[in-house]
Amino acid sequence: MSGKKTRAVVLAAAALLLATVALPGSSAAEPPTLRATTASAPDLAPAATTCDTGASLQPSTSDSGPGVQRIKQRGKLIAGIDTNSYLWGFRDPATGNLQGFDIDLVHALAKSILGDSNAVEFLAVPTANRISALKNDQVDVVVRTMTITCARLLQVSFSSPYFVAGQEVVAPKSSPITGFDDSLKGKRVCAATGSTAADLLKQTSHGATVVPVANQLDCLVQMQLGNVDATITDNALGAGQVAQDPTIHLVGGTLDQELYGVAMKLGASDLVRRVNAVLQDFLANQWDTEYNLWLKPLGKSPGAPRVHYAG
Amino acid sequence: MTTPGQNYGVGSGVGGAGGAAGGTVAGSAVALPPRPGADAPAPRRPSARLRSTPPRRLWTLGSVLALLAVLFGALTVTQVVQSSNAASSVVTHSQPLSDDAAQIFHSLADADTTAATGFLQAGNETDAVRKQYNNDIQTASTLLAQAAASTSASDPGQQQIQQLNSQLPVYTGLVDTARADDRQGLPLGGAYLRYASGQLQNVMLPEAQTLYAAETARLHQDYANAEALPWAAIGLGLVTLGALVWAQIRLFRRTNRVFNVGMVVATAATAVAVIWLTAAQSIAASDLNASNTRGAAPLQVLNEARITALQCRGAENLNLVARGSTDTYETAWAKVSAQLAGKNGYLSDANGMTASDPTAQNPIRVAAAAFTTWQQRHDTAKSANDHGDYTTAVNDTIGVAGATSTQTTSAAFTQLDDSLNTAISRERANFHSLADAGRGDTALLAEGAGVLAALAAAGALLGINRRVAEYR
After folding, report:
1. From CA B6, how far away is CA A306, in angstroms rounded?
2. In chain B, at which end, N or C, are there fewer CB atoms within 10 A of the end residue's CB?
């Protein structure tokens, strides 16, 4: 597919999508300034702030591309994951087994591409190393609650979204903090280095002091010890924190709409299409089950995100 | 003892010293040759008459000599007691405190490492690991209490001791929270353990290091005090000796009598005291210095090596606890292992320092070899982890639950730690035997020097008295 054609299709699809807003689970009260998606997204490449994060390449079950072939020849899918995200990717301390929503998605990918759901090499990657792990070919895919952003689209390719989340403030129930607003003034707010929350706080901190940590879970430790007053992370991970500590809550609603996608090496279009084909099936047939298995703390299932393709 | 002088003195003691004759020639110096057994009749009240007379000058001479001897004795006793106290302080106070500070450091670092091991064993935490952790905490708190008791409020390490005392229960609380969360299957447990370890590594261990440095500085100060030669006492002893010799030459010139028992005894006693003092202190300083270079100094390096090895082990374990959420620990491993086994690392230092003592050097070489094995296994485990095989990485690191494996990094670490411990025991024994020898070298020196000085003072007075008596 030629670049020009792609562009044209992207443009058209973007316009269509943003006119209809086909994604469920988004908060009605999201501040427009924080939205990654904007109406004028004519080109994916040069502009970091204007793009359609919801559009990915048309799915294809073809295994002939170099990206897919590399995995097939190896006989193993190398997946970059998180092992500290409760409900998404974490290790059962008793059995040592990895589990969670993201882990199940990786198994589904392996099953479809290699015919064996266990033909996976899980590689834990820190939040800040997700992109470099792909660039350095350490992993084939990153399935790690990774938000599709315009800036990241310049560095890696994403599948179609498989989950809609949003940044949200997590604070103790007893705290006067009401959300991402002036109630944060003078407070210490925790965010993982390299995360969307950290970028968000860089734009506007509402007078809060930012405490950076390596992993969002470290924020919960800091919050329990009283070293920070609140945490900003996305609601999916925030729900994982709430599930581990009933004295805290997600507060103020989501600040933006974030789409989780499977990240792959920039330009590995054959693999993106192949993964999108798996996701198409996953979203249609397995998503609800997975949601109910792992993500119940988030509330009733909003239904799988409806996806659209561009190019 | 019989000498011509004495015989003569006894024989001619009847004649009084001529007050008037001497008096007219009186100068300020005591140096005028008196004529013993000469002219004048015995005065009724010698004390009054002796003013500015040869007997009076003789008394002055005797008093000055006696005073010098007494001063020499007092100074010697003071300085010997001082340096002997410093030597005692090395053995009974500052070296044990420095060693204790190293132990505090060690048990804290070991607690960190062990907590991570127990965490990796998860539900299968062994009794041995649990006990070791409890022992570490107990050792650290006991030693901290001891250190607090044996240092005064103004001591430089006091602040660190207090801080460590207050932080230790906080640390154990964090570890307990980590365990409790982990047992409930919450990933939060791992985050807690990393936080606990961060507190220990970044706050408590630097304090323990400062404490160790303060105690070690005090050890070096005590060494310097103990090894310092008592120059003032030696100098005053030589002055006393010179004065005695000079006085005898004067007396000889005046009286033509060579020996005066009192003066000879005084001279001999002073000479013996000076020689004893100089020799004993020099030998003691040399022994103490040896106890440092062949005991305390390598002991310090070995203590550091052992602690550094523990930090390597801690980094290795925590890297697995972190489950890939950060690469801090792998970076820490690289840094700390270079301090341990790098080109100018502790192992290489310790090897150099024990070149003359194979009993200590051999285990250090074994430790270095164990590190090489450890590094290889570490790389193997790291490679497994880097390829996503977490279980293999854990098994390579802490072994398989319930099975005894000798091919783990844990086994290599244990061998290294045991070898270092053997070398440490050897150096500790070296230190004690050499330091005890150093202290033994000055045994009875203070008492002996005091007695000799008293003897010299008495001798000088008696000797002079004999001459004075000749004037009567």
Report:
1. 128
2. N
Mean pLDDT of chain A: 83
Beta bridge partners of A263: A142, A158
How many Å lie between the alpha carbon of B180 and the closest alpha carbon of chain A? Answer: 11
Complex ipTM more than 0.90, yes or no:
no
CB contact under 8 A, B186 and A78: no
User: Are both A174 and A160 inside the same structural domain?
Assistant: no
Tokens of A98: 């990895």
Contact A122 B390 (CB under 8 A): yes
**Closest residue of B to A84, CA-based?**
B187
- Report, in angstroms and rounded to the nearest whole number, the Rg of chain B calculated over CA atoms: 36
Domain that holds residue A186: 167-251
Answer yes or no: do A247 and A269 share one domain.
no
**A14 domain-assigned:** no
**B82: number of Cβ within 10 Å:** 15
Does the beta carbon of B235 lie under 8 angstroms from any beta carbon of chain A? no
Give which of A106, A221, A228, A242 to mutate to test B binding, by max B Cβ within 10 Å.
A221
Residues A74 and A144 in one domain: yes
Both A180 and A92 in a single domain? no
3-class DSSP state of A134: helix
CATH code of residue A219: 3.40.190.10
Q: Does B192 touch chain A (CB under 8 A)?
A: yes
**Helix and strand counts by DSSP (H, E) for chain A:** 10, 17
Yes or no: say if A184 and A230 are a contact pair by the CB < 8 Å rule: yes
In a domain, A309, yes or no: no
Verify whether the Cβ–Cβ distance A94 to B185 is below 8 Å.
yes
Q: Tokens 């708190």 identify what position?
A: B141
pLDDT for A96: 72
The whole-model pTM stands at: 0.73
B390–A214 CB contact, under 8 Å: no
pLDDT in tens, B430-457: 988 988 888 888 888 889 999 999 999 9
Domain count, chain A: 2
Q: B185 and chain A: CB distance < 8 Å anywhere?
A: yes
Euclidean distance between CA atoms B12 and A80, whole angstroms: 115
Q: What is the predicted pLDDT for the residue at A215?
A: 83
Residue A181 lies in a domain: yes
Q: CB–CB of A133/A124 below 8 Å?
A: no
Which two structure tokens, joined as six digits, stand for B297?
């100094």
